[in-house]
Structure formats: structure tokens, C-alpha cells
């Protein structure tokens, strides 16, 4: 046992002096906890805290690598410019639209897929594998594949529609059809991720609850709404958090399918950030745009976390 | 309320037969316990009755209706599950009200039935809680309440006390018995615990390997076990068994120990030389006094229980247990005589292991 004191060495009850370094490295002390947490804290600081702080810092500067001028502090000028920038509003609108369409879309499709995968198939692995494949595909690869699917002349989608007497659609010439194609692709790509999380949730629901409901007289539909859905809520909220945040950062699929076209009608905020920082090398404005996206993601996460806490 | 019948009821998974053509009649208002070791088919039988398991062969009849092709909800049964199967996101009230809501029972009627059942089970103060806020015993009561409010023809209990500690198990067991006395509905109860079976049942069905080994009242299965298996399964500590051979009017257990056959439960003469299994319950040993047949053995272990003393002793190649009065405290290693009441000796055929009657 050690005694606390302001001196570098301290005296124990039996009169022995404990050197200061023993006190600091005493395994029973709080110092041990700090030591154990330190690597993780340092790592987090390096890869998250510092970049975010640096991003916010840069957003207050006029920093264009093409101008050859030194960085100039401009305060909120980048943000003011953003408010008057029609492309910012369009790309933000597109991002919000994609989020509002693809997140519920992926949830519904993912839920259906998870329910299907949870059926007592004799062989489970082909079902699970078919769920994993879309998730495992790189986003840009999925975008490329679906760009061909929606090709106006050679695409499988127009071919199938044609068999039902539908005139070929020139998907990527119209902002609406292009956005529809992008949203469908994102739903296909992301619903398997939703399905995997929901499937994990489904498998935690004891079978005896359904048997009790069977005996209680509830049919399949009632069981779904009275048992399955309420018990899946935590899994669904987790899936929604991940999916919404990634939806707000949508980049690869529209980039590969339309490159934001026609015009900027399908460009997203992430693409606009990329354009400003990588193509135009305007790091100041690009950082300001990224700060807005970061704030948007934080708000959504806060809302979902509040939902979880309320449910808990 | 209704009677229940199993007619040649069978269940197979491929070539593996779990339940082997069971025939059983359960009377209206009867409390029947299906008991047996793990894998004997008791839960499968109950689940076939509930409609939760497809029937491979035979018929299940509730009342006068064959229910093989009816869904569980159409069988008018209520079931208490081993893990209670309470809906975790619903309150106790909502759990109990669920089946009534599904069946379109009015809100007033639902409220009154739940109040009545809650009062009967002493869970009125728990109605607003969720299952996670309840103890094991309380959850068990809620599961019973959920079954009671249905007012079904038949109650099914699938090992409902398995998850409770010994003290609570005793308490809830008493409540289940009281419940049956109050509502008088047919109850079919599955357990692997012979004490539960003996204390609760009007009749006990002992299953082994998917077959019925014996059906009888608790007294019958205790006093007249149909086989070595039943004799060993019912009673605690278990019945002692040792091999014997008929010689004259006695059964010889060791070169120096034999017991008279007069008084033992069998009819007719037993041929000399017939090989037997002799069963004696620990509680049927008595202190060796004059005129009482006795067995002499070497004491191995002594277990004082307060109310009585268990003495484990060696007789030939067998180790037997005797329940003796509490003041009997032999020393391990000593030779001791144990008196046996001949009328309490059970004789089984050595080859078939069935009782000789």
C-alpha cells in the first residue's frame, strides 16, 4: 500500500520509502489503465482526431495548389461561397435523394433476403454465399457491371424490358433515369450488407417464441409484425447507421456509371469534394465541403444513437 | 376440457425411429406425466400433440377429433415451454393478452381473465414488467398465466421446472398441482425428473427408447415396477439390483446369502436354476432382527442424512444401498447384517429384465 503525497518519494505505513517510479508504475494504480489504453488512444488520435482537426483547420484557408500562392486565412469565406454555389446544392440534394431512396430500399430488400436466408434450407452455404457476393464485390466494379446492364443498346435491362414490349430507355441521357439506375445499383450492392446484419439478428430470436406464437394462434404475418420485427429493431438500427453514413458518402457507383452526368445531375457531394480537391487542387474549398459532409454524418449518427438509447 | 388419445403414434427421422407406435388413452381432467431419460421421445410426443412436430405415423385425438392435420392454433391447447418462451419485448400483461387478442376476445374480457389468472398465480403486481425484469420463478408463473387465460381443452407442460433451482422447483411444483386442482383441465406434462412425476401425476407414463415401458399411478410404478428399467428409474436412491438363482423356495444371491421366495410379488412356482434379477429398494432394508431374512455385507460408505442414514455395502459382486434409521452408524469395513422384508422383494427375469408376476 502506498501513501499519496506531493514529494517524489513517499513513505509506507511501515516506514519504508516507495520510490516515485514504483508509484507511477504500480500495477494496482490507475496508471496501468492509462498505459493500456494509451496505444489505442494514440492510434485514434493519429488516424481520426488529427485528420478531422486538420480538415476543419484547412477549411478556413484559401489553399489552392494551382495558384502557387501561400495559404491565406479567410475565416468562413469558403462556407459563404458554398451557400451561393449551385453545384454544392445540387450535389447535396442528389446525395440526400440517394440516401432517402437507397437506405429504405436496401432495408426492405435486405430484410426480405435475410428472411429468405433464414429459411431452413437443407444446404445453407449456397444461400449465404449468394448473400455475400454482392457485398464482397468492389463498389467500382459493381458500378461498371451495372453501367453495362443499363447500356441503352447492349444492356440486359433494356433487353428484358423489350420482351415485355417496353421501348428501350436511354438510361444515362436523362437525369431521372440515370438517377434511378444509380439508386437500383446501390440498392443491389448494399442490400446484402443489410441482409447479413439482419440475418445475424434473426438468428438470435429463439425458435420457441414462434412456437409459442403458433400455439397462441398467430399466423405467419402476425408473427412477423408482433415478434420478428420488434426483436429485429436493434439489428435494423445498427444496419441503418452504417448504411446511412455510407450512403452520404456515395462516390464509386455514380462515378463509374455516369461520372455525375448528364451535366452534374447525378453527381454527389463526395464526387464534388473529389473534384475540388483532386482535380482542381482547391484544398480549402474541398475541405469546407468535407466538413459539411462530416457534420451531416455526425448528425445522422447522433439521431440513430439516440434512437438506440431510447429503445434500450 | 377433453380426453387425449395416441393411436399407434410414431415419429421417425429417416431410418431412426424416435417414437415407436405409442398407444395411450388420457382421460378428461387427468394429470398425466410423460417421464424418461433424455432421448426417450417424451418431448417429441408432446410436440406432436401440440402440432409443433409433424407426425410420421398413427393418430393424435383430442376429444373426439383427429388433429393430425390441424395447425397448433386449431387444436385448442396451451403450452408452457421449458425456456418459458415469453415475448421479451412485451409486458407480462401483453404476453398474457396476446393469444386473446389474436382470437378477437374483447378488451374487457381479456382484462378480466388476466386479472383472475394473475390473482391465482400471485403475479398481479408484475403485469407492467417485462420478462427481463422477472426472476425465473416469476417467469414460470407468467408462462402458466399465459396458458391459463386461454382456457384451453388441454394444457401441455414441456419440462417447465428444468431452469429453476431446487427450492423454487419444489414451490412451483406445488403451485402446478394446486392449479390442476383449481381448474381441473387435462394436463400432459413432460419431465425427466421422477420426483416431479411421482408428486404431480395421476398417472405416469414411463418412456424408454421411444416405447412405453409402463403406465400406472405413482403407487403402481413404485410398488409394482414392470421392468428393471422402471424399478431403477423410479425412487431415490435408486432400487438395488443383484443377480440371483432359484433354488427350491429361495433365491440364492451369493454362496452365503439367499432370500425366501414366499411373500415376493410373483405367482406360481419358479423353476429351479432360473436366473433372476432381484430388486430391493434402499428403504425396504430394515435392521436385522430375529425372524427377518437377512443379508450380510461389508460396509463401504456411510452417509448420515439426519433423518436417516444411507449405508452402502458390498454383497458378492454387487454394491447395494440401504436406508437405515438415523441412529445406525456402522464403521466402513465392518461386517453388518441387513434385514429384508420378503414382500418388498422385486423379481425380474434375467434375460428379458421384465418383472415376474
TrEMBL record, chain B:
Transmembrane feature ranges: none
UniProt xrefs under Pfam families? ABC_tran, OB_MalK, TOBE
Q: Which keywords belong to this entry? A: ATP-binding, Nucleotide-binding, Transport
In terms of InterPro entries, this protein maps to:
AAA+_ATPase, ABC_transporter-like_ATP-bd, ABC_transporter-like_CS, ABC_transpr_MalK-like, ABC_transpr_MalK/UgpC-like, Mo/tungstate-bd_C_term_dom, NA-bd_OB-fold, OB_MalK-like
One MF term from GO for this chain? Answer: ABC-type transporter activity
Q: List the subcellular locations.
A: Cell inner membrane
Q: Which SUPFAM superfamilies match?
A: MOP-like, P-loop containing nucleoside triphosphate hydrolases
Q: What is the membrane topology listed in the Swiss-Prot or TrEMBL record? A: Peripheral membrane protein
GO terms in the biological process aspect are: carbohydrate transport
Domain of life, per UniProt, equals: Bacteria
Q: What is its main location?
A: membrane
Naming one, the record's GO cellular component terms include:
ATP-binding cassette (ABC) transporter complex, substrate-binding subunit-containing
Span of domain ABC transporter: 4-234
Family statement drawn from the similarity comment of this UniProt entry: Belongs to the ABC transporter superfamily.
Which PANTHER family does the entry link to?
MALTODEXTRIN IMPORT ATP-BINDING PROTEIN MSMX, OSMOPROTECTIVE COMPOUNDS UPTAKE ATP-BINDING PROTEIN GGTA
Q: What is this protein called?
A: Sn-glycerol-3-phosphate ABC transporter ATP-binding protein UgpC
Organism lineage string: Bacteria, Pseudomonadati, Pseudomonadota, Alphaproteobacteria, Hyphomicrobiales
Amino acid at each position: 500500500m502506498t501513501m499519496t503525497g506531493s514529494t517524489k518519494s513517499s513513505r509506507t505505513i511501515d516506514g519504508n520509502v516507495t520510490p516515485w517510479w514504483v508509484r507511477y508504475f504500480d500495477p494496482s494504480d490507475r496508471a496501468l489503465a492509462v498505459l493500456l489504453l494509451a496505444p489505442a488512444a494514440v492510434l485514434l488520435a493519429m488516424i481520426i482526431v488529427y485528420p478531422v482537426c486538420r480538415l476543419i483547420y484547412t477549411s478556413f484557408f484559401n489553399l489552392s495548389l494551382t495558384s502557387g500562392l501561400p495559404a491565406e486565412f479567410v475565416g468562413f469565406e469558403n462556407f459563404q461561397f458554398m451557400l451561393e454555389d449551385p453545384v454544392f446544392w445540387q450535389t447535396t440534394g442528389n446525395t440526400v435523394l440517394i440516401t432517402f431512396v437507397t437506405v429504405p430500399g436496401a432495408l426492405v430488400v435486405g430484410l426480405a433476403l435475410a428472411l429468405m436466408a433464414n429459411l431452413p434450407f437443407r444446404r445453407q452455404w449456397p444461400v449465404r454465399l449468394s448473400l455475400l457476393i454482392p457485398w464482397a464485390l468492389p463498389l467500382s466494379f459493381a458500378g461498371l457491371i451495372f453501367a453495362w446492364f443499363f447500356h441503352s443498346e447492349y444492356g440486359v435491362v433494356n433487353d428484358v424490358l423489350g420482351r415485355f414490349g417496353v421501348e428501350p430507355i436511354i438510361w444515362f441521357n436523362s437525369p431521372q433515369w440515370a438517377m434511378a439506375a444509380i439508386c437500383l445499383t446501390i440498392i443491389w450492392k448494399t442490400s446484402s450488407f443489410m441482409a447479413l446484419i439482419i440475418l445475424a439478428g434473426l438468428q438470435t430470436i429463439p425458435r420457441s417464441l414462434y412456437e409459442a406464437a403458433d400455439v397462441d394462434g398467430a399466423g405467419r404475418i402476425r408473427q412477423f409484425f408482433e415478434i420478428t420485427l420488434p426483436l429485429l429493431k436493434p439489428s435494423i438500427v445498427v444496419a441503418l447507421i452504417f448504411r446511412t453514413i455510407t450512403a452520404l458518402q456515395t462516390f464509386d457507383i455514380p462515378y463509374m456509371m455516369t461520372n455525375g452526368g448528364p451535366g452534374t445531375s447525378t453527381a454527389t457531394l463526395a464526387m464534388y469534394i473529389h473534384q475540388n480537391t483532386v482535380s482542381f487542387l482547391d484544398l480549402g474549398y474541398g475541405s469546407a465541403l468535407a466538413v459539411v459532409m462530416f457534420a451531416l454524418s455526425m448528425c445522422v449518427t447522433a439521431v440513430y444513437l439516440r434512437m438506440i438509447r431510447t429503445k434500450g | 376440457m377433453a380426453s387425449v388419445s395416441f393411436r399407434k403414434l410414431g415419429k421417425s427421422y429417416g431410418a431412426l425411429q424416435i417414437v415407436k407406435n405409442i398407444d395411450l388413452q388420457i382421460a378428461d381432467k387427468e394429470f398425466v406425466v410423460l417421464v424418461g431419460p433424455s432421448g426417450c421421445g417424451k418431448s417429441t410426443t408432446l410436440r406432436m400433440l401440440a402440432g409443433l412436430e409433424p407426425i410420421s405415423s398413427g393418430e393424435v385425438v383430442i376429444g373426439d377429433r383427429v388433429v393430425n392435420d390441424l395447425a397448433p392454433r386449431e387444436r385448442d391447447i396451451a403450452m408452457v415451454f421449458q425456456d418459458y418462451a415469453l415475448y421479451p419485448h412485451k409486458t407480462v400483461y401483453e404476453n398474457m393478452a396476446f393469444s386473446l387478442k389474436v382470437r378477437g376476445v374483447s378488451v374487457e374480457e381479456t382484462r378480466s381473465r388476466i386479472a383472475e389468472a394473475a390473482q391465482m398465480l400471485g403475479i398481479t403486481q408484475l403485469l407492467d414488467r417485462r420478462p427481463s425484469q422477472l426472476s425465473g420463478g416469476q417467469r414460470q408463473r407468467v408462462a402458466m398465466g399465459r396458458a391459463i387465460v386461454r382456457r384451453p381443452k388441454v394444457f401441455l407442460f414441456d419440462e417447465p421446472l428444468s431452469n429453476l433451482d431446487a427450492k423454487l422447483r419444489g414451490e412451483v411444483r406445488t403451485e402446478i398441482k394446486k392449479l390442476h386442482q383449481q381448474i381441473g383441465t387435462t394436463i400432459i406434462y413432460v419431465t425427466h425428473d421422477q420426483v416431479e412425476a411421482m408428486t404431480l401425476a395421476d398417472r405416469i407414463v414411463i418412456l424408454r427408447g421411444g416405447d412405453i415401458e409402463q403406465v400406472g399411478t405413482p403407487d403402481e410404478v413404485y410398488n409394482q415396477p414392470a421392468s428393471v428399467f422402471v424399478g431403477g428409474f423410479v425412487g431415490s436412491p435408486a432400487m438395488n439390483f443383484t443377480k440371483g438363482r432359484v433354488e427350491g423356495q429361495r433365491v440364492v444371491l451369493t454362496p452365503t446369502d439367499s432370500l425366501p421366495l414366499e411373500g415376493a410379488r410373483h405367482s406360481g412356482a419358479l423353476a429351479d436354476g432360473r436366473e433372476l434379477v432381484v430388486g430391493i429398494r434402499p428403504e425396504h432394508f430394515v435392521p436385522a432382527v430375529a425372524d427377518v431374512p437377512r443379508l450380510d455385507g461389508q460396509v463401504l460408505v456411510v452417509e448420515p442424512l439426519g433423518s436417516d442414514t444411507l449405508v452402502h455395502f458390498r454383497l458378492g459382486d454387487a454394491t447395494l444401498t440401504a436406508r437405515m434409521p438415523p441412529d445406525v452408524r456402522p464403521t466402513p469395513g465392518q461386517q453388518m447384517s441387513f434385514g429384508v422384508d420378503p414382500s418388498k422383494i422385486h423379481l425380474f427375469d434375467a434375460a428379458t429384465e421384465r418383472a415376474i408376476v
